[in-house]
Amino acid sequence: MNRFIQLHLLTSYPPSNLNRDDLGRPKTAIMGGVNRLRISSQSLKRAWRTSDVFKEKLSNNIGTRTKEMGIQIFESLNEKGIKDKDAKDWAKSIAGVFGKLKGEKKDNLNNDLEIEQLAHFSVEEKNAIDALIKILVTEKRAPTEAELKLLKKENTSADIAMFGRMLASSPAFNKEASIQVAHAITVHKVAIEDDFFTAIDDLNKNDVDAGAGHLGDTEFGAGLFYLYICIDRNLLLDNLNGDRNLTNQTIASFLEASTTVSPTGKQNSFASRARAMFCLAEKGNQQPRSLHASFLKPIEDKDMLTKAINEIKTMKDNFSKVYGKCSEGEQSFDVLKGEGSLENISKFIQED
To answer: Domain for residue 166, yes or no?
Structure first.
């Protein structure tokens, strides 16, 4: 089996603000001594995990990441006729299995039903919680310690298998991420720009005030992004309890999402939907390596996409000249030339 699958993507985004910092500006990074636009791996993974692609292709194998499971449990018990005090106590017992609960606040009486940190619940764990709720409602009693201990389970939730999870109170149920996602960065230097805008009041007849109803500004940037991804197929298979069909289904779904799904930030303002223009997929047992060094020297070329593709290919070949063969095989598509296909790459990376 080829352990590692590596994806190298080039995606062009028009003016956009896909991933904002604490000031609302597009995130950036300095590489090669110049400023680049950046999309964080967290933003990318969130967009993929909640995408329609995952919902359609992995519908029965997607977990739930939340602090508010205790609130959902309380409401479910309450709706089924359990009085408030018992419902709250039982919900706290169940939610507390997955993390430390917050303290109660006067302005939020249900705050102590929330877990302090986001917990990723697998499909099996959510089903186990629902089954326990039915028992408690039927027998009108609190959960036992033995029942609570059985709530944490080995899982086949594809998103947990891909991106991992940490339960600080129960390390045995942690999952190491089988997919590593770099931050996407532009292959060229950038300058963030400002968009000053006004909004006009539809009912303002200009008889008293001819000014705008609202003034504002937002910042944006445009660029060609390089993204590197490394998939550990062996770890993914292990995380999915040896289910080869689900492993291949997960790999195929992930490829489709990573090449077709854009981050959601400011999409209503910029409609910056994009698909990858170039994808190089490699597989093998050799030690993985990013090809970001192709762009340490920022590209300054009118035909930027062609130049970027050539730089990736050159860097890949140079790595092989110096280190020897860096993969057992590769496939690519190039939208600019209309060569290759997503389907062919999907078949290629699913093969053992």
So the answer is: no
